[in-house]
């Protein structure tokens, strides 16, 4: 990505092939502790695009915008920002016109509007059957030293069922387990599977896990949220940045890294591109699996 110099005027013209984006306030600090300014952020997004976009395209996008950087006021946005450029695809769901994040141009435009987080719908537009199962691992503590132990326990259970999945950090305090699946089962059936996994683990390790929905009743236990992966609900897309002081990124990790007790803060905007160049997209290496035989054995 090349950007043209501007003499005294503050905006910078960013060029990506034939695409041009006028970036105002290029030197505005976005993650001040990490030294990341607005133009830096847009440059990093352009390098993240090939990895992030496959997990956002075809889905409804919810963003969180921080016009003054992470320490300023923020707001959630579901409706496409107006005016919406011609290159941005949108889709109506109910009375909301969502952005569909399916191009580098759309991603950089959203970045220029200070969209610092990209949360996508679990369901794809026009496709009722999911292509993945996810379990949200949500600690009650802001810093949870047992997070990777919890991730590991979920992985061991899935492995015992003959299933391969991969964890990703949420980029905040928790993690998600992601398992690509063959299409054919409904979100309701996936929820039944998630309920079984979560309740089994909570019964096996009641000091570590809970399926208690009310936060005030969880104590210090880690909530296994099997309800969040459902049509109409959102989770942070893989490789989405998070508006936290460490500029963390929701990052797929290996089971070896889980055993080494990595932290969500280990993966951030200043090192994620080098990691992806070295390891590639770990999620793409897992083949979609059939869940029908496992579902057939679950109690109704």
Can you put this structure into words, describing what you see?
- By secondary structure, the protein is α+β, with helices and mostly antiparallel strands.
- It folds into two domains: 10-124, Alpha-Beta Complex (DNA primase, PRIM domain); 132-297, DNA primase, PRIM domain, CATH 3.90.920.10.
- The chain has helices spanning 38-52, 104-112, 147-160, 187-204, 255-259, 272-279, 292-297, and strands at 2-4, 12-16, 19-23, 29-31, 36-37, 59-65, 75-77, 89-93, 96-100, 115-124, 132-138, 166-169, 175-180, 209-210, 222-225, 234-236.
- The strands form five sheets. The chain has a five-stranded mixed β-sheet, covered by helices on one side.
- The longest helix has 18 residues, at 187-204.
- The protein is globular.
- Mean pLDDT is 95; it is low at 4-8.
> Looking at CATH, which topology of the largest domain would you report?
DNA primase, PRIM domain
The string of secondary-structure elements, in order, is EEEEEHEEEEHEEHEEHEEEHHH
Order of strands in the sheet with most strands:
12-13-11-15-14
CATH superfamily of the largest domain: DNA primase, PRIM domain
Q: Assign the CATH architecture of the largest domain.
A: Alpha-Beta Complex
CATH class wording of the largest domain: Alpha Beta
Mean pLDDT: 95
Major beta-sheet overview: 5 strands, mixed
